[in-house]
Amino acid sequence: MALTPETLVKHELVGLHVRVVESTDPGRVGIEGRVVGETMRTLEIRRESGVVQVPKAGTTFEFALTDEAAGAREGTGGPPKPSDTVAGSDGDDVTYVTVDGARLLSRPAYRTENGVTTLWQ
User: SMART domains from the entry (predicted)?
Assistant: First the structure.
């Protein structure tokens, strides 16, 4: 199954670029970097200043999906909305997918093997 905005929550998140867009803790808003680890209740995000652990509950994440990260997307899901796609710095298109962290609350292996339904924004 290809990595698309519709299937993001069913996939491995490690390696994706992420940004915190909303949080019950205002100090977490704006944290961004690469996902380097995931537990049942947290994402570990590598920033320039080091790795920070962000709880999934009470947090809204914005993931950047590049053509490289998604692989071949032809024939899977629907196309991203034009307003959600911008050119990346290396020329790849980047699609930003906003996900409520509550949708990611499960063991990563369980979520990726059994899948969950997604209501991506």
Answer: POP4
